[in-house]
Amino acid sequence: MKKSIVAIAIAISLFSCNKAEEKTTSEKTAYIDTVKLMDEYTESKDLQAKFEEKSKVMGRELELEIKKFQDEADNFRRNAQANGPEWAQRKGAELQKKEQQLTYAQQAMSQQLQKEAAVERDSVVSKVRKYIKDYGKKNGYSYIYGTGDAATVLYAKEGYDITEKIVKELNDNYKAPEKTETKDTAKAEEKK
């Protein structure tokens, strides 16, 4: 009796293993090249351009301060001997303080830009992840893997790559913010 129960249990477990194997092979899977996705996604490109421009603007302001400092330092070098050691020591200390302030300002600007960019980049990544999740559910995928910087797929057949579809749909759904410069220019032209 015990032998027949064990035999039945083994048969059931083998039968259920075969069913599980059949189930997993029929799962619909795909992968997305996440680096390519973020490189080709218009919102991601717009975000990158926005922070490059913001960096240039902030950098120009800082460059003006650096130029003033360099002019002051050049003036100091030219006049140090003529104005005496006491003046040179006092002016040298002032210049060191200004140089330190410029260094701090440069670091603060860089940190501010990195922090702002990270927050907005995280928002874009979050939107993309939600979109991929919804896309997967809507299209009957069991799994959608990501490749790229944090690769979770080491190999996949080309036919499973849905990166282009996702990029196209994301770009089709993305509405770029209107540029304020264009509006201001148009308003100025209307007044003429």
UniProtKB/TrEMBL annotation:
SUPFAM superfamilies: OmpH-like (SSF111384). The lineage of its organism: Bacteria, Pseudomonadati, Bacteroidota, Flavobacteriia, Flavobacteriales. Gene3D superfamilies: Skp domain (3.30.910.20). It comes from Flavobacterium microcysteis. GO terms for cellular component: cytosol. Keywords: Signal. Belongs to the Skp family. InterPro entries: Chaperone_Skp, Skp_dom_sf. One of its GO terms (molecular function) is unfolded protein binding. One of its GO terms (biological process) is protein stabilization. Residues 172-192 are annotated as: Disordered. PROSITE patterns: PROKAR_LIPOPROTEIN. This is OmpH family outer membrane protein. It holds the Pfam family OmpH.
